[in-house]
Design a protein that fits this description.
About 35% of the residues lie in helices and about 15% in strands. The chain has helices at about 15-30, 60-70, 85-95, 105-110, 120-130, 140-150, 195, 215-220, 230-240, 255-265, 275-280, 290-300, 305-310, 315-330; strands at about 1-5, 35-40, 45-50, 50-55, 75-80, 100-105, 135-140, 155, 180-185, 205-210, 225-230, 245, 270, 285-290. Strand 3 (about 45-50) and strand 4 (about 50-55) form a beta hairpin. Helix 1 (about 15-30) crosses helix 14 and helix 10 packs across helix 13 (about 305-310).
């Protein structure tokens, strides 16, 4: 079975969407499923206003059609609501072809953090985008409920995973005053990093990641350590060397970094909002509190081994099985293709 994923988020971007799609494809390969990607790399691009590190594609309908037909997919999945996603949606609708979508990013919250646009208008546009999808895949039960309550149809749950071969406990010393409070992710206004950096905490605050707010935050918080983007073993080492993972975002729909931290034996301190609440719930692996400082101190007493055991329940193979089974369950296989002959998976 060949699945084509259309996405406006792709390398060299470093974010949860790119990591999710990359890990999904790797895990699906082990199940005999082939993924291909329709990304901005095939088109001219321009820098996104207010976030120049992100480049948006300028796709043309004829080229979109040619790339899809050359890929010869059995199924089409649209991962983002950007220019590529819109064009692929148009291609499918014009030809009456089934497709699925996923909801990764809370655009209304992100846009409102930058410009005064009514959230109701953005939600209306998002509902229209996903309206023709056979299945709208959401990462958590809370997000699935919210989408359903906002009028989205055909919402299904698609959980995420973590690479425990990469992220696991190890003995690492960052040579920084302890305890080390770590935050990992895009350094942008919607991540609410000031809520972490403003805290009166002992030891050291470390921020891993890059983004449009990094320069201003480095200037405003000279006592914090900003390490920039880190990947692979270097990132895994930093997770393992820290004492608490602080997740100040109130907008993330999931937060893959939560699972990466837990797999590394790092307890979580976060606000009790969707994302952290869905991933952690009542499990004794994190402290969720509207007082983030109190959560940070409470997390210091959490068992690191409990965090590792909790994260072991989330695998990318299970995530891939749910993704593929959702496509087959709703009949989102192109006419004349052999995808329908593939067995359904049970996660």
């Amino acid at each position: 079975m060949r699945i084509l994923v259309a996405t406006d988020a792709w390398h060299p971007q470093v974010n949860g969407v790119v990591r999710t799609l990359t890990k999904l494809a790797d895990a699906a390969k082990e199940l005999g499923i082939e993924f291909s990607f329709l990304t901005p790399q095939s088109f001219r691009t321009f820098a996104m206003p207010s976030y120049r590190d992100v480049r948006l594609a300028m796709p043309r309908p004829a080229r979109i059609a040619r790339l899809i037909e050359e890929a010869r997919p059995d199924s089409i999945h649209i991962a983002t609501e950007g220019p590529i996603g819109l064009m692929v949606r148009r291609y499918c609708r014009q030809r009456k072809l089934p497709f699925t979508t996923s909801f990764h990013t809370p655009f209304p919250e992100y846009v409102r953090a930058r410009v005064p646009v009514p959230g109701s208008l953005i939600w209306r546009a998002l509902r229209r985008f996903h309206a023709s999808s056979r299945a709208v895949m959401a990462a958590t039960p809370a997000l699935a409920r919210e989408l359903t309550e906002r009028g989205f149809d055909n919402v299904v749950l698609w959980p995420r995973g973590v690479d425990t071969k990469l992220f696991h406990p190890r003995v690492i010393d960052l040579c920084l005053p302890a305890p080390v409070f770590l935050s990992v992710g895009r350094v942008a206004v919607e991540k609410n990093l000031e809520a972490f950096l403003d805290l009166d905490l002992p030891g050291t605050k470390v921020v891993v990641g890059d983004g449009p707010a990094r320069a201003s935050l480095e200037e405003a918080y000279p006592d914090a350590i900003f390490l920039g983007e880190k990947h692979g073993e270097e990132l895994a080492d930093i997770y393992a060397a820290a004492d608490v993972f602080v997740f100040p975002s109130k907008t993330d729909t999931f937060g893959l970094a939560l699972l990466e931290a837990l797999a590394s034996g790092l307890p979580v301190a976060a606000f009790p909002v969707k994302g952290p609440r869905d991933v952690i719930g009542d499990a004794p692996v994190g402290a969720l509190d509207h007082d983030l400082r109190s959560a940070c101190f409470a997390a210091l007493d959490i068992s690191r081994q409990d965090c590792v055991a909790f994260a072991a329940n989330y695998t990318w193979e299970a995530s891939a099985r749910v993704f593929i089974d959702s496509i087959l369950a709703v009949g989102a296989v192109l006419p004349g293709r052999n995808g329908a002959e593939q067995p359904r998976f049970v996660a």
